[in-house]
Specification:
Layout: H1 4-15, H2 21-32, H3 37-44, H4 48-69, H5 71-100, H6 103-123
Helix pairs in contact: 1-2, 1-4, 2-4, 3-4, 5-6
């Protein structure tokens, strides 16, 4: 994945519900709200090291689950495949429109692009 923050945010999106309320809160503040360990520690009246320990444990839990299941890895691979299908169907549609104007090809590419749209909507929980 691109960088550590992006990776951790993806882990949180997929596995955040596995964390304790305190782990969720600190993780969210650190990665999503961009608060420093010191700021979180001051807000909760604990040490900076205490905050760090909670976040490190949360990272370990989610990383372990991803290492065991590979759900995010499969999700990203599926996302790339859907994008490739969408691009190929759009290119076929353009070639057909400019060279052939075949109604069956138009129907099939419309079906493919509609299915891609449905997959993307499911991906985003729409």
């Amino acid at each position: 994945m691109k960088n550590q923050t992006y990776r951790m945010t993806m882990l949180f999106d997929f596995y955040g519900e596995l964390l304790t309320p305190r782990q969720k809160e600190f993780f969210d503040l650190y990665y999503n709200e961009d608060l420093s360990l010191t700021e979180i520690a001051e807000n909760y009246g604990i040490s900076r090291q205490g905050v760090r320990d909670v976040i490190v444990r949360a990272e370990a839990v989610m990383t372990d689950v991803e290492d065991r299941t590979g759900i995010i890895h499969r999700f990203m691979r599926s996302r790339r495949a859907v994008a490739a299908i969408e691009q190929a169907a759009a290119e076929i549609e353009a070639i057909n429109r400019h060279q052939y104007d075949n109604e069956q090809i138009t129907e099939k590419t419309t079906t493919i692009l509609s299915s891609v749209k449905t997959l993307k909507e499911q991906e985003h929980g729409i």
